[in-house]
Amino acid sequence: MSIVGKVYLVGAGPGDPGLLTMRGHECLAAADLVLYDGLVNPELLRLTSAECERTSRIVESDGRRLHQDEINDRLIEAAAAGKTVVRLKGGDPFVFGRGAEEARALAEAGIPYEIVPGITAATAAGVYAGISYTHREQASAVAFVTGHEDPSKPQSLLDYDALARFPGTLVFYMALHRLSAIADTLIKSGKPPETLTAVVCRASTPQQETITAPLAEIARAVERAGLRPPSLIVVGSCVELREHIAWFEKRPLFGVRIGITRPDRQADAAIRRCRELGAQPV
Ligand code: SAH
Predict the structure, then answer these.
(1) In whole numbers, what is the pLDDT of the chain averaged over residues?
(2) Residue 232 C-alpha to ligand 1 middle, in angstroms?
(3) 18, 6 contact by CB (below 8 A)
(4) Whole-angstrom Cα distance, residue 101 to residue 98?
(5) How many C-beta atoms surround the C-beta of residue 93 within 10 A?
(6) What average pLDDT does range 80-103 have in this prediction?
């Protein structure tokens, strides 16, 4: 009988390495092979001695991107050869993350697996930008929506009339490139143009940037500020809370890059201190 390994589908959290779960940390420490995606903060790889490979869906100048089928095959092959494999995915593996497709391929191949949740980008962006999606005076529901589909296409699976009527906060993932079309379509479908909107870029990292404006003006404001993906769009009156409770972007060294000159083994304390002050350790 062959010895089969195991695959752990692990949510890496949104960017701040401190937001990995303890279970995720244990899995990384035990791994022989880590396949991580483009949204994962590479600082997390300090927690493992495994062979690590990026499967980025963001094409890098030197790297090649793996197709989903190839990723599935790699996970199956490595586990079948007895390895402990971590598939590390940005945010939560099941929130717009294709984690279920990977789990299904493993189930069909008879490979044992475990799935470890992660803090999804929306949760982190709300907290790190000072926006509570369900503040009881502002909203009694929240919807996570993909912005990947073109809202002007008649075959869109999303019902923008229903979204415009939704009695709560809307959070769009993968939507920055369609911001203007999404805002226009929501307004045409009845959402008041003055509804406060925020775009949170690179949430929970020292490069976090947040722009707020009424829905009708958000696309221009974001273009002026030059925000880039990964970003989330938050539509709802709860955005106004930010003015009172934002905290993360106010840290004393927020956004500053600090080179750590200590050897890797002795760098932990300095890295932690940098992060507490809002700086990016390099
Ligand atoms: N599984 C991931 C989402 C993958 S879809 C999760 O649970 O977070 C990729 C989208 O997530 C991006 O287009 C962007 O909209 C959002 N995203 C991921 N990380 C982000 C971050 N740090 N800040 C803002 N948006 C982020």
Answers:
(1) 92
(2) 7
(3) no
(4) 5
(5) 25
(6) 96
